[in-house]
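Quick start: read one record
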Amino acid sequence: MCGIYGEVGRGDVLKNAIDGLKALEYRGYDSAGIAFFNELQRIKVTKQKGMVASLEAKAGVDRWATRCPLSDPLDYNAVIAHTRWATHGKPASKNSHPFKQGRFVVAHNGIIENYKEFKTELENRFIFQSETDSEVIAALLEEEYSKLWDSQFTVDEFEEGFIDILTRENKDMTLEAIYNVSKKLKGAYALAILSEDVPNTIFATTNNPPLIVGSHGDATSTFVVTSDEAALPANSQIYRLKPGEIATLDDNAIKIYESTGEGVAPKGDPLFQPIQAKQQPSKDGYPHFMKKEINEIEKSLRATLESKDTEQFKRVNEFLKTADTIYLSACGTAYHACLLGKHYIEKNLGKQVVAEVASELRYMEHVGVALEGDPHKVAAIFVSQSGETADTIAAAELFKKQGAKIITITNNPNSTLANLSDEVININAGKEVAVAATKSFTSQAFAFNLLTGDTCVNCLEPFFAEAKRLQENTTQIKELVEKYKKVKNIFFIGRLADYATSKEASLKLKEISYIHSEAYQAGELKHGTIALIESKSVVCAIITDPKIKDKTMNAVYEVKARGAKTIVISPFTELKDNAVVDDFIEIRNVMHDLIPILSVIPMFNFAYYFSKQRGIDPDKPRNLAKSVTVE
């Protein structure tokens, strides 16, 4: 969700910025833009609705027209670029970043909640071109900088060495303007900023959303800022900006400044960390990343098992056994993994668990009450594939301030969420590019099982083998897609753990095929939802628990009596021949406790092929982002 890339250095930094945006495409976006200095040290902004490839073509023309000297390796230049996921204002070129007001250009990740009051105040002095909250930041910077300029210089100074003073003071005034504006903003922001008064320099700051500065690969004189390390090669050195810090990137170095309460002061040299070796994502012959990642589930589950031998894993396992209170929280797919985690903790450890969506948990009054006892005996487990989900980070920070033990289950152990946690469980699922999460969900759920159960490691081979069979069992799934391709509503039902996987199966279908789909507890159908069932409805029941198999089947009878077509996913083969079951997907030879983790795999494939059948790109569904970094 929104990506920032900026670079200052020698060579073709414009091309590097475009390549950086391409590496961030997986996050999801609807438009893109780029800003760079031309030969007159004025900033040229180029923006385009649609894909980065369209921006690349347009920027190439603009670069030639402005005679931008980026092709000369001896010249320094600074560039900032952005991929936008629309919040305020529809997807359109005019609403794309970066935004220019006066001498300032800004690329922004986040949401400014109080922008309207500033926009109303500034409209008599600035012409706003967009419908966004972000453009206001550029205007505020210009306004604040102008005030500092007027108070800083006298008429005499214009006559006596003004250029020398200008060179010395502009950077400091820009830092002060950024600091002053940041105090006014409410909401979330990560900013990359250019100023025509400070050529070939990038300013960067954040109040929470991820923002990284560092050196680009082997080039020690080329410096970058980005919202995601995925945009950088493996041999880069990075520093994650802390809230309130301001970084400057120029032709000499990266410098970090911090708040003093009255302004900013140099913090000292940042402690850079190397990016671990990684491979650029490749489809490896698959038509889409999503299908590739579904077919990597078995491999990812095996990799997640490796976390069981880590010291962090052992410490978390022991703490959960003694904790008085356990909270689980996440968003989207990761929240569904929490619902499975709640099932495993309550079943295997006998603990009562609160599982709540992070965007709700952070505002719930009962949280403070629960932590009034001994917060050190509260386990707060937060789950995020990227570790950069804004709501999840905010909820974790709330619990951390109260003294709870913060535990993160993530696919990115170097993320913002991981860095604020006491313990980190790395699911080791490997790079996940498709917006719709698949292998990360099964690995997150498996991590919960490993953390809480007495799983026989030597007994897991059938589990891995069945995961592999299900991920590759496409013939039956394609037949189901062809059979049900004209339906407009598909419902999923289940109980307990099966309700968690029903929610995940439903989410996958709706987010990548745009079919209306909902998940319900099987026992709740007759309390209202059954009114939606008609002859054209399809109902998929997930039934993996022998204790409540017959209870869930009662719901299948009920929907069948009202004309629905039924699909059952289950290890109980006797259901296959039941007259009310139209289609049966079997799960074979797996320990009962692990079956729920596998039950959703067929529906991952179902969603994938349904999306393809409808001519939709399953990797990049509309309106969605891989990493949701705004509230």
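The longest strand covers residues 76-84.
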